[in-house]
Design a protein that fits this description.
The protein is an alpha+beta fold. The protein has three domains: 1-51, no CATH class; 52-157, no CATH class; 173-239, no CATH class. Strands 1-3-2 form a three-stranded antiparallel beta sheet. 36% of the residues lie in helices and 19% in strands. The protein is built from nine helices and eleven strands.
């Protein structure tokens, strides 16, 4: 579905013959150019390409993969779909790329943990569900916001806690331990052993943090030392 010269050099060992193939195929509409060196096969019945956004992002660079909201979509846990942009991760920052009304935006990331290389079977590189959840809680802005994260947790299967702990230890952020502990207790309760909550509590310190909450519309969860959003109440005179 997606290819570069290396993928077809056995068929076109000569660069000139490969370039001739590209020109003919682009002209007759059997392939589309995503960027220099990366091409997609076209479904002639629909005019669209066969590859998904997940596969395109995974092929943009040798080290590109995706997490955050895009991973929630991949795992079927997203309630929103970001149709006009796709954030992917690379080890270096690169410019945005537009293809068929989708802007592919890179986010620099040097963490190599919990990346599932499925290029041979599915044509994707995606983080594990456990890392996706931790990444989203760490950066809600890349996840569609707290409500989207909570919807994902509500529909989530049991997670492998060893993978969650691995990511928490890697990021080593007191605030992240607070947020993960609070949300896991809220949505998983006794499905998660008490030792996990105790681990999170032991790393949070004494600072009270605001978690996606605004002053005046927040409530304190004392156990986790978090100010979390509360429902905004309308004045009585409106009723």
């Amino acid at each position: 579905m997606l290819f570069n010269y290396e993928d077809v050099k056995d068929i076109y060992p000569n660069r000139d013959s490969f370039n001739s193939f590209l020109r003919r195929s682009l002209e007759n509409g059997t392939i589309k150019k995503i960027k220099k060196g990366l091409y997609a096969l076209v479904d002639r019945t629909t005019g669209g390409i066969y590859a998904s956004r997940f596969q395109i992002a995974s092929h943009l660079f040798d080290d590109s993969y995706f997490s955050y909201h895009e991973a929630l979509e991949y795992y079927g846990l997203a309630t929103q779909v970001f149709v006009s942009q796709f954030t992917y991760l690379t080890h270096v920052y690169v410019n945005d790329l537009e293809f068929e009304d989708v802007t592919y935006i890179s986010k620099k990331d040097n963490c190599d943990l919990e990346i599932l290389d499925q290029m041979e079977s599915e044509g994707t590189r995606v983080v594990s569900l456990e890392r996706a959840i931790v990444d989203c809680i760490d950066n809600p802005g890349y996840a569609g916001g707290l409500e989207e994260i909570e919807n994902a947790l509500a529909g989530c299967r049991d997670l492998y806690l060893d993978k969650v702990i691995k990511m928490l230890e890697y990021y080593d952020k007191a605030f992240l331990y607070q947020k993960v502990g609070y949300l896991f207790e809220k949505y998983f309760r006794d499905r998660v052993p008490e030792s996990f909550y105790q681990l999170c509590l032991s790393r949070i310190g004494n600072r009270i943090q605001y978690f996606e909450a605004n002053v005046g519309f927040a409530k304190l969860v004392l156990k986790w030392k978090l100010m979390v959003p509360t429902e905004r109440e309308l004045p009585n005179e409106l009723f």
